[in-house]
Design brief:
The protein is mostly helical. It has helices spanning 3-21, 35-59, 61-67, 73-95, 102-128, 132-172, 184-246. The protein folds into two domains: 3-130 and 214-246; 133-210. 81% of the residues lie in helices and 0% in strands. Keywords: Membrane, Transmembrane, Transmembrane helix.
């Protein structure tokens, strides 16, 4: 996703959190069981099931092969992300901040955890580990530059030594004239600074790559957590839907 889409998803996550905090000021016990409330809840359920469909497609190779002939995986991922955020937003609207039952409270908690964990894993860890190929290419170029700078430093050291030898020879053997390089010491200092600067840059980039490797480990852990908590969410969601149907819809 590009930066604009990240901004949109981030805004939706913030909206979801603000809606959840709305229970401090708002509460409507009758809305969830009303016809409109049912429609909002049904829409929320459908949207929240889309990530489950995406998960099944992603992990079933034969199904994935069939589906990707018509819809690319990046497109499915975008649908998964937007549905995964919009569904909980509608679910919070459906709840009307009526957090009386244990099922409802559990559903809201798992729903919030799934969305926030998904956002953190997808965007925060993604930002940390971005541009890895560019960083590795940059490190290779820096090592080449460092090799050249080291050679230039060696040449500068030789020039300084030659300059010192030439000056000493001129004092002791005046009739021998040697070509003394100008500003040899200044050139040496310049090359030393360049080598140190390149080494510092390499250190920074390699540390960034190390952070990426750490992020990959955490990303793998996050993915397992996200899947487990998502499955738990669906269990609670199905139980909530079953309860609503079994005990009757109040607007009928």
């Amino acid at each position: 996703m590009n930066s604009q889409e990240r901004t949109i998803v981030s805004s939706l996550v913030v909206l979801m959190i603000l809606l959840w905090l709305g229970f401090v000021w708002h509460r409507d016990p009758a809305f969830p069981g009303s016809f409109i409330g049912f429609g909002v809840g049904l829409s929320a359920s459908v949207l929240m099931l889309i990530p489950l469909v995406y998960m099944i497609i992603k992990r079933n190779k034969s199904l994935k092969k069939v589906v990707t002939k018509h819809i690319a995986m990046p497109t499915l991922l975008r649908i998964h992300i937007y549905a995964g955020v919009l569904g909980p937003i509608l679910a919070l609207i459906h709840s009307a901040h009526r957090f009386d039952s244990a099922t409802g409270v559990s559903l809201v908690i798992f729903m919030m955890v799934v969305v926030i964990s998904g956002f953190v894993g997808r965007y925060v860890l993604g930002l940390i580990s971005s541009n890895l190929k560019e960083k590795k290419r940059q490190v290779n170029e820096l090592h080449v530059a460092l090799s050249n700078a080291k050679q230039a430093l060696k040449d500068a050291v030789c020039d300084v030594r030659y300059s010192t030898f030439a000056q000493t020879s001129a004092r002791h053997i005046p009739y021998i004239t040697l070509n003394v390089p100008t500003s040899a010491q200044s050139k040496l200092f310049k090359q030393e600074s360049q080598v140190l600067s390149i080494i510092d840059t390499i250190s920074d980039v390699e540390y960034s790559i190390l952070i990426h490797d750490t992020a990959k480990v955490w990303f793998a852990r996050w993915l397992k957590f996200h899947i487990v908590i998502s499955m738990t969410l669906y269990v609670v969601l199905f139980f909530h839907i079953f309860s609503a149907v079994y005990f009757g819809l109040r607007w009928l």
